[in-house]
Amino acid sequence: MSQSVRRAVDLIRRAAEHPLSLTEAAEVLGVHKSTALRILQTLESARFVRRTGAGTYVLGSGIIELSELALGSMDLRQFAAAPLRTLQRKTGHTVHLAQLTGDEIIYIDKVDSPAFDAVKLPSRIGRAVSIYASAVGKTILAYLPTAERDRLLSHVVFERFTPTTCADRESLDAELVRIREQGWAVDNGEHDTYVMCVAAPIRDSRGRVIAAASMTAIEVIASLDQLKESLPLLLDTAIQISGELGYDTSEGD
Amino acid sequence: MSQSVRRAVDLIRRAAEHPLSLTEAAEVLGVHKSTALRILQTLESARFVRRTGAGTYVLGSGIIELSELALGSMDLRQFAAAPLRTLQRKTGHTVHLAQLTGDEIIYIDKVDSPAFDAVKLPSRIGRAVSIYASAVGKTILAYLPTAERDRLLSHVVFERFTPTTCADRESLDAELVRIREQGWAVDNGEHDTYVMCVAAPIRDSRGRVIAAASMTAIEVIASLDQLKESLPLLLDTAIQISGELGYDTSEGD
DNA sequence: ACCGCCCGTTGCATCATACGCAACGGGTTG
DNA sequence: CAACCCGTTGCGTATGATGCAACGGGCGGT
């Protein structure tokens, strides 16, 4: 493991959170200012951070460009973009797309509802979701081959975030059976008490579930029942996206 | 300057472009495989790269998350998102938002036209634009205070990309006078012969032009004259966004 | 089935780089 | 005007980054 690289990563993260002075950078790393300065100078020349007029460091456009390069090359995200925007427009709810990526399930797109301007959802593109305490996580888990599901869950330390969390393997397994039976999943405040969500599976050309689409509401805006009223649209959207990926949707669900 | 950090940056960039094996990583850096491995292991633990099942390294979701954090905290981009989507829907053209950031003008949002699925535009969020050979670049330059414009242009080596490029300071200055007179700018294939663009200035609460919005077409889809037919909508959108930023739009243009 | 080759990986000794220190100039505040 | 703090740079040194050798595993050819 490289200590210098870890320090650089730490500074990039902090510069993304809020503007960072040299003195602060040295303090948080626990190194001399000259050491922090050289790391920042290297990151600045790479456009991973930018020096502001006030002398502080913020995230640079080089990171944004790399991110857009990666997101732009994701076929799933490209195919899903228009159907998800349509779903958001028709239902009024915030819409997410999450994908299994290695050992994590990551949000790769999000179409915000204007109704949420005042209350920000915690979800963010690039961020991993809880695989057992989110609708998209449970959806993808439900359809994974048993060995792969076991492997993902072997790293998990179950935590009861709220009273409705499936906080052990048995209750989660029962929930996954339900999800497979009905073809969709619900998050009834399992990670955050005020956030409700429904999700539907997205399949690739071989029929494997590799992603999920979801609609999210918070309790002051819409109840779970109101969210479920739009479930048929969500399911149609997920099937449409699956079709774009080459899944033969005539086989039935 | 930190050599290890520069190597890490290089690997992150390459992993974003295409999957990278350890052997390739060592070769492109000119170091031993054990050295490259340790850098990659550090980046992987930070989620800046991800190891695929095939053993290659690709860009990690940690970078995507940082990028979204930065983009999500840009007020201009938040205020502009809905008006730009409306503009794209009404006109059918691809729409961009570019902002002066330090010494560069960077695309910070882009709403694609479905018509472009087959032909990809070179523009990308996070990427710097040519400040003298793009409509958004010329728009922002036109309204900068002279000292700041001179400072930005002092770093520029003019290059004639196409027959229509303003490839020297005199012809650029004349063009900037025209832009200030008419209140908008045109790119008639100045950077890429097949790309046309019109742009309008966006002002902050103090009336300074800090960004520009644009509509883009390529010659097989729409001519520059067809693009100009939507100019009133573009100007209205730019004024609307300026208003959201606190600019008093009743002062006249 | 076996062998050779290449890949990724790790422990360890070595050396080159990252590090901290001292000194500096500049800006801000009292 | 003085004191303080910031950012910065040159340089000697200590340490962390480095390469090497050895290893196990997978793959392809015979």
From TrEMBL, chains A, B:
Keywords: DNA-binding, Transcription, Transcription regulation
Pfam families per the UniProt record, alphabetical: HTH_IclR, IclR_C
GO MF: DNA binding; DNA-binding transcription factor activity
Secreted listed as a keyword: no
GO BP of this protein: negative regulation of DNA-templated transcription
Stretches assigned to the HTH iclR-type domain: 2-61
Organism domain of life: Bacteria
Domain IclR-ED, residue spans: 62-247
PANTHER family: HELIX-TURN-HELIX TRANSCRIPTIONAL REGULATOR, ICLR FAMILY (PTHR30136), HTH-TYPE TRANSCRIPTIONAL REPRESSOR ALLR (PTHR30136:SF24)
Descriptive protein name: IclR family transcriptional regulator
Organism of this sequence: Verrucosispora sioxanthis
